[in-house]
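User: I've been trying to design a sequence by hand for this structure and keep getting stuck. Would you show me what you'd pick, starting by listing the structure so we're on the same page?

Assistant: Good idea, let's start from the same input. This is the structure you sent:
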């Protein structure tokens, strides 16, 4: 995707999360050179932690789930979503100036799910608004919200892939690198080795638009 929008401040939560793992236990055993299933409980936990790590540090959420994001309108016509991949957005709601919840009509925005990041783009004709400085105005692309609401916009949608087989191999390999390092280094430190951190970042670079590993 050609644009790179600043991620807005907000609160992100998930519900109805699928129970499957983003890599199989057999893949994890082979990566860690484990013969047998005697340590599957440990591997399962490490896979889950690695999956959460990709979400927290790279915005990649592999397992299918419903997401809810409470935020503000951006200054531009593009809302960059904090999750990827996104299969769809079910609703965009906001608190209007009178304090009532309104639903933004689907005809007033377009959801772009094919790029990184996934985004919502306004179809509304922009308005000029006085910014309380002489001779200065700015374009407004979204409806006016309540000044008393800290996070007046609520976006609901679906993130993640439908099954483990749909996840790109590079993302799965990044998870396996994390699992194998944490399996070998069972210490209190949360700092990755330089080699693993570099490898994970390079594998995820085509899929992540924020990288904080």
């Amino acid at each position: 995707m050609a644009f790179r929008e600043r991620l807005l401040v907000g609160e992100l939560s998930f519900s109805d999360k699928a129970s499957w793992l983003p890599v199989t236990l057999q893949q994890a055993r082979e990566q860690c050179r484990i013969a047998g299933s005697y340590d599957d409980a440990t591997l399962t936990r490490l896979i889950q932690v690695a999956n959460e790590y990709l979400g927290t540090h790279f915005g990649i959420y592999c397992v299918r789930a419903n997401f809810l994001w409470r935020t503000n309108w951006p200054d531009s016509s593009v809302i960059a979503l904090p999750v990827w991949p996104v299969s769809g957005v079910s609703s965009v709601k906001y608190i209007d100036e009178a304090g009532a919840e309104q639903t933004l009509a689907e005809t007033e925005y377009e959801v772009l799910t094919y790029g990184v990041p996934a985004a919502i783009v306004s179809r509304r004709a922009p308005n000029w608004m006085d910014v309380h400085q002489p001779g200065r105005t700015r374009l407004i692309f979204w409806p006016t919200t309540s000044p008393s609401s800290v996070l007046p916009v609520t976006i609901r949608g679906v993130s993640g892939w439908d099954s483990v087989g749909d996840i790109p191999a590079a993302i799965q390999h990044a998870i396996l690198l994390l699992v194998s390092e944490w399996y070998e280094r069972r210490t209190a430190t949360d700092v990755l080795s330089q080699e693993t951190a570099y490898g994970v970042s390079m594998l995820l670079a085509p899929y992540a638009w924020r990288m904080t590993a």
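That's my pick for every position. To get oriented when you compare it with your attempt: The chain is about 25% helix and 25% strand. Residues 1-6 have pLDDT under 50 and may be disordered.
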